[in-house]
Amino acid sequence: MLTLTAAEIRFIIKILRRFTVKKIFLLFLSGLILLFLTACKPETASPEQAYQESSETLESTAASADVLGRDIVKWQEAFPLQAASNDKNHIEQSSPTGYNGSKPIQRWEWTPEIKVNFRGIAFSKDYKEDRGHVYAWEDIFETARTSEKSPGACITCKTSDLELIFDEYGWDYASMKMYDFKESGHSGIDCFSCHDPETRHLRVIQPAFIEAMAMRGKPVEEASEQDMKTYVCAQCHSEYYFEPGTTKVIFPWARGLSPEQMYSYYQEEPSGFTGDYTNPVSNTRLVKAQHPDYETFQSGIHAAAGLSCAECHMPETAVTAADGSSETITQHWITSPLQTIDTSCLSCHKGKTEDWMLQRARYIQDSVFDSLRRAGLAIEEAHLTIEKAASDGLSNLAISDAQAILREAQWYWDFTASANSTGFHNSELAHSNLSMATDLAHKSTQKILRAYNI
Predict the structure, then answer these.
(1) How far is residue 269's CA from residue 266's CA, in Å, rounded to a whole number?
(2) What are the beta bridge partners of residue 29?
(3) If you write DSSP's letter for every residue of 75-94 in order, what string do you get?
(4) pLDDT for the residue 78
(5) Any idea what the Cα angle at residue 143 is, between residues 139 and 149, rounded to 5°?
(6) Where does residue 421 fall: left (phi above 0), alpha (psi -120 to 50 degrees), or beta otherwise?
(7) Residue 339 lies in a domain
(8) Closest C-alpha to 162, from 46, 300, 70, 40
(9) pLDDT class for 25, splitting at 50, 70, 90?
(10) Quick check: is 413 in a domain?
(11) What digits encode the pLDDT tens for the residues 213-236?
C-alpha cells in the first residue's frame, strides 16, 4: 500500500491548487488512458532479458538479428565503429602524466631497486610496461619471463579461447607446457574475452575468477550489468598464484580482498604454497604480487561512487558513422582515462577543466611514486643488510627474524608497485601500503643492526 508523509500530502495539495477543475479532470482522464495502455503491454522482461537488451554490444542495429558466433570478421562488420576504436589499442604511447602507458619500457629505468628486490625471479630480467591488450598473446611468448618450461597457466589471460581450452582439458591445461599452445591458432584477447559469441552480452571466462566469486558468495551468474562492466576486467586484473603441483590459478580471496587479508592467507601456506621465489640476495622467501588492480579499485573512491572500470577506461563516446551521422558507442580503445578526459572524467567532474584533471592526477601519482621509491629503496637496503649479515656469520635467529619482516614489507610495496595507475585507483590504500612497507623494511634492517650492537 502506498503511504504518504504529511509533507508529501501538503506538497500535492499545493500543486493541485494551481489547477482548474477542467485541468484536473483532463489529468484524471489521461491517467486512466495511461493505465489502460500499461495493462495492455506485454509482460515485463525478466532481469536477464533486460540486461541482454541493454548490453553495450547491441548499441548498433547492424546485423542485430544474426548470431555472429566466434567469427571475428563478422563482429567487425556488424560493429564497425567499435572495431575502429579497438584498433587504437595498437598504439604504443606514454601516459600524459608520464606514468604507466603502453610503451614497453623497462620499469627498472625509473625504479632500479627492483633489480635487487626481484633477484631470483624473471621480473629482474624483464619487467616492461604492458602494451595494449591486442598484443597479449604475442608478448607472452616474447617476454624473457617465460620459456619453453613455463606452464599453460601462463596463457590464462592471454586468449579469448580460454573457455574452449578449459572445456577440452579442464584445469589440466594449467600444468601443460605453455608452448604446446603457441602454434594452436588460438586467438589473443578480442571480443570474446568479454562478450558471449551467441548472446553478445558481457560475460567472464576466467575459471579462477568464477570460482573465487562463488566462494565469496557473489556468483557471476547473478551479477548486474554494472558489476559485469568491472568483472570482465577483474577476471584478469587481480592478484593470483599457481597452486603447487597443479599450477592451477587461484585467487587468494578466502579471507577478503585487502592486502592484509591476502597476506594473512598466504602465511597459512595454502596447498603448500610458500611463495613465488626466494631472493638469493637475502635468501628470503617472497610472494610476487600480480597486478591487484581490482582489489585496489574496489575499496577506492570511484568504486564507492558506483563507477565501473569501463566508465573510465571505455567511456561512452560520440563518433561519426560512415554515413556522416553521429552515434554514441562504448569506446573500445582500452586506455588511460587521461587520454580521454573529456568523456572519462568531465562527465562527472562538472566545472573542472581537462588541464585541472590532468594536474590533479599528476599530483596524486607524483606523491605515490615518491613513496614507492622510498619503500623500494628501504627494501633494497634490507636485502643487502641481510646479505652482509649472512656473510659475516651473524646468528641465524637474527637473520630469520629480519627475513620474516622483510617478506611482509616487500608484499605491501609490491602490492602497490605491481598495480596499474601508480596509485590513482586508490591513493589512500597506496600510501597506507607504502608507509607500512617502509616501516617494516626499516625494522628488518634494524633487527640486523641491533644484532651487530650498532
Answers:
(1) 5
(2) none
(3) HHHHSHHHHHHHGGGG----
(4) 94
(5) 110
(6) left
(7) no
(8) 70
(9) very low
(10) yes
(11) 999 999 999 999 999 999 999 999
CA proximity to 300, closest of 205, 388, 138, 421? 421
Domain residue limits at 439: 72-88+110-307+353-451
Instruction: Give the orientation angle of helix 354-391 with respect to helix 396-417, to 10 degrees.
Output: 160
User: Residue 181 class from Cβ within 10 Å (0-12 exposed, 13-18 middle, 19+ buried)?
Assistant: buried
What residue type is assigned to position 274 of the chain? T
Between strands 249-250 and 241-242, the pairing is antiparallel
CA distance 238 to 295: 7
pTM above 0.70, yes or no: yes
Tell me phi and psi for residue 93, to 5 degrees.
-155, 160
326 occurs within a structural domain: no
Helix and strand counts by DSSP (H, E) for the chain:
18, 6
The total number of structural domains in the chain stands at: 1
The owner of cell 597443479 is 246
CA atoms of 421 and 425, how far apart (whole Å) = 6
The pLDDT score that the predictor gives to residue 413 is 99
What is the CATH classification number for the domain harbouring 191?
Answer: 1.10.1130.10
Three-class SS state of 286: strand
* Share of residues in the chain with pLDDT > 90 (%): 81
Does residue 386 form part of some domain? yes
Q: Which residues contact residue 179 at a Cβ distance below 8 angstroms, ignoring those fewer than 6 apart?
A: 141, 148, 150
